[in-house]
Specification:
- This protein has 320 residues and is α/β, with parallel strands linked by helices.
- It is globular.
- The longest helix has 19 residues.
- The chain contains eleven helices and nine strands.
- β7, α7 and β8 form a beta-alpha-beta unit.
- α4 packs parallel to α5.
- Helices cover 38% and strands 12% of the residues.
C-alpha cells in the first residue's frame, strides 16, 4: 500500500479516452501516456481531477460540442470500472468516496470557451457533473484573458464576472490556472468562495508567466485557496528541471503562504516533456517522500498531498 494519500488537481487524460487508432486503454497498464487506472492505484491517488481540455481547433466554434464529446467519453469509460472509481458531485459524496476505498474523480472543464457565452450552458454543465472550470487557457475568451495574451490591463469580462457569481451559487470550483494577472485579482475580488490554481508553480523560483508571483500567492492565502504544484518542466526550471528543483517551489510557496495553501497539480497527460523520476503518476510517491527530506513533517505533508484540496472542496461543493 502507498504510504501517502494524494489528491492530484489536474490531468488531461480524458483527451485520450476512446481515441481512434490508439493502443491506450485507461483500464489497463499502459506504456503510453502518464495515467491509467492501475497506475493511479499504485500511486496512492485518492482523488483525481479530470480536466476536459478544449483544444485550440475547437475555439471559438465547436467548443461546447467538443466538451460534450469528452464528457461522453469520460462517462463511458467510468461505466467500465464502477468498483474502482467514483465521480463525486457533492461534499457528502466526497466524504463517502474517501471512506470507500474507491478513487474519487472530479470533473473540470479547462477553457471557458465551452460555455459559448451562455450562462445556461454553465448550469447545464453543472447538471451533467462538471464541478470545476478553468476560466481560460492561454488565450482570451468570453470570460477573461489568458497569460498568453499581451493585454495586461484586460482581466475578467462582464460575462466572466457573472459566471463567477453563478459558480459560487451552484457550488463549482473556480480554477485560475492560465489566467493573466489582472484576471487573477479580479476573480479574487468577486468570488465569495475559495479558489484554486490547479497547476502552476512559483515565479520567484522560476520566472515563467504561468507561475504565480509572491503577491498572488499571498492573495490566494487570504481567500483560503490552494495552488497545485505542477510537474511541467518549463514551470520548474528554465534550463533543466529535476525533482530537487521542483521541491524548491514547494519550499518557497510554503514560506510565503504556509503549508495550508499548497498541493499537487501534476498536469500529467497535458505535458510532453517530463522531469526525470516523474515520468508518470507513479513518480508522485517519490516526490512526496522527498518532501520529508526538505523538512516537512508528516502532518504538513498530509496537508500538501491531500488535506488542503479536500478542505477547499468541502467548502465549495454542494453539501448533498
Amino acid at each position: 500500500m502507498p504510504k501517502y494519500s494524494i489528491v492530484d488537481a489536474h490531468c488531461d487524460t480524458v483527451g485520450f479516452f476512446f481515441q481512434e487508432e490508439s493502443d491506450y486503454n485507461f483500464l489497463t497498464r499502459n506504456k503510453l501516456h502518464h495515467i491509467d487506472l492501475p497506475r493511479l492505484k499504485e500511486s496512492g491517488i485518492i482523488l483525481q481531477f479530470f480536466a476536459l481540455y478544449i483544444k485550440d481547433e475547437y475555439k471559438p466554434v465547436g467548443s461546447l460540442a467538443y466538451c460534450l464529446r469528452l464528457l461522453d467519453n469520460y462517462y463511458r469509460t467510468m461505466q467500465r470500472c464502477p468498483d474502482d472509481l467514483q465521480t463525486i458531485y457533492t461534499a457528502t459524496e466526497l466524504n463517502n468516496s474517501l471512506n470507500s476505498g474507491k478513487i474519487a474523480a472530479l470533473l473540470s472543464v479547462e477553457g471557458g470557451e465551452a460555455l459559448e457565452g451562455e450562462p445556461a450552458v454553465l448550469r447545464m454543465l453543472f447538471r451533467l457533473g462538471i464541478r470545476a472550470i478553468g476560466l481560460t487557457w492561454n488565450q482570451q475568451n468570453q470570460l477573461a484573458t489568458g497569460i498568453g495574451e499581451d493585454k495586461p490591463m484586460e482581466g475578467l469580462t462582464a460575462f466572466g464576472k457573472k459566471v463567477l457569481r453563478e459558480m459560487n451559487s451552484l457550488g463549482m470550483l473556480i480554477d485560475l490556472a492560465h489566467i493573466n494577472r489582472q484576471g487573477f485579482f479580479d476573480a479574487l475580488k468577486i468570488s465569495g468562495d475559495p479558489v484554486v490554481v490547479s497547476h502552476a508553480n512559483s515565479r520567484a523560483v522560476c520566472d515563467h508567466p504561468r507561475n504565480l508571483a509572491d503577491d498572488q500567492l499571498r492573495a490566494l492565502k487570504e481567500i483560503d485557496g490552494v495552488i497545485g504544484m505542477s510537474c511541467c518542466p518549463e514551470f520548474v526550471d528554465s534550463r533543466y528541471a529535476t525533482i530537487d528543483k521542483l521541491l524548491d517551489h514547494f519550499v518557497h510557496v510554503a514560506e510565503v503562504t504556509g503549508v495550508d495553501h499548497l498541493g499537487v497539480g501534476a498536469d500529467f497527460d497535458g505535458i510532453e516533456d517530463v522531469i526525470p523520476g516523474l515520468e508518470d503518476v507513479t513518480g508522485l510517491p517519490r516526490l512526496v517522500e522527498e518532501l520529508s527530506k526538505r523538512g516537512f513533517n508528516r502532518e504538513e505533508i498530509d496537508k500538501i498531498t491531500h488535506k488542503n484540496f479536500i478542505r477547499v472542496l468541502r467548502k465549495v461543493l454542494p453539501a448533498t
